[in-house]
Amino acid sequence: MLTSGMPMKKLKNEAQLVKQAIIVGGNYAEKRGVAEFEGTDSASDKVEYIYRLLVHDKLIQPLAKDQISEPNMKHKLAIWISRQLPEDHPLLQ
Questions:
Q1: Of 17, 19, 60, 85, which one's alpha carbon is 20 to 30 angstroms from that of 70?
Q2: What's the DSSP call for residue 85?
């Protein structure tokens, strides 16, 4: 269990994994018919929306209320996408 104030351990290629998670999560949201991202939507907005959608759909565990922050949501998305990619994917090497 994470204790308050402890940073989560960064994943290798985390920034690229987050970008991939935004793409895949955005496609997921569009296929579900719940969102359509525009080019003008900020990455922060996309991260938060996708995080909340995946929590709502029970695809990821929610963060504790005192742990909800953009870096932690990005980390959760990076973990989520890393589990969706094939083992030999370049971002997992």
A1: 85
A2: S
> What is d(CA 35, CA 42) in angstroms, rounded to the nearest whole number?
14
Q: Is the pLDDT of residue 56 over 80?
A: yes
What is the CB neighbour count within 10 angstroms for residue 69? 10
Length of the chain: 93
* pLDDT band at residue 2 under the 50/70/90 scheme: very low
Cβ count near 22 (within 10 Å): 20
pLDDT at 86 over 70: yes
**HSE-up (13 A, CA, CB side) for residue 39:** 0
Q: Which fold has domain 14-31+42-85?
A: Four Helix Bundle (Hemerythrin (Met), subunit A) (1.20.120)
CB 31 within 8 A of CB 53: no
